[in-house]
Amino acid sequence: MEIIFIRHGHGEHLIDYPNRLNTLHPGLTEYGKFQVGQLRNDINIDSDDLVLVSPTKRTIETAAILKNDLDFVISPFVGPRMFPLNPELPFLACDHILSKTEIRILYGDTEILDLNVECWKEGINQIGQDIFEGYAKRLIEWIGERYNRVFVISHDGTITNYRILLGEQGLTREDFLGEAGVYRLKL
What we know:
It comes from Paenibacillus ihbetae. By secondary structure, this protein is α/β, with parallel strands linked by helices. It has helices at residues 30-40, 57-67, 100-107, 117-122, 129-143, 156-165; strands at 2-7, 50-53, 73-74, 111-112, 149-154, 182-186. It has a single domain, classed as 3-Layer(aba) Sandwich (Rossmann fold). It contains 6 helices and 6 strands; from the N terminus they run E-H-E-H-E-H-E-H-H-E-H-E. Helix 1 runs parallel beside helix 2 (57-67).
């Protein structure tokens, strides 16, 4: 299986950084939409690939641009996650996930992966490492051998946490992908 991690494009919460980090549910800026549109030229997502998307407006907008009307699945297991984990830092509004109700209202019948009710309440941003790893392993188990390629459209901290869980070592914030960045991992 190949996992392709994609970081969302430039978000509205990054305009006037860091003063807008407490913007609730920021979407992509026009520049972010441009970045993802450029990325679409380099990314080929097939109808039999799994596309997992964080339940935030900016990642869902990224998926909609990349998928070109194909389906994707929204999961809190790939929602925003702090890296490195520091529960003493504030939980920023930009990292609050959309609820299942908000997703249904905004995005209609987009598929929602509902493997854990509690995760929809608290997200994965500041939960303990052992709880996060349990959720992540459950997601990987759910994926199983059903897909040859899995695209994960998410956030820098989340992607870095998954890369470590999948065996990479020594990663730091310097390894973040940045806006509309891509990282491929063969398992």
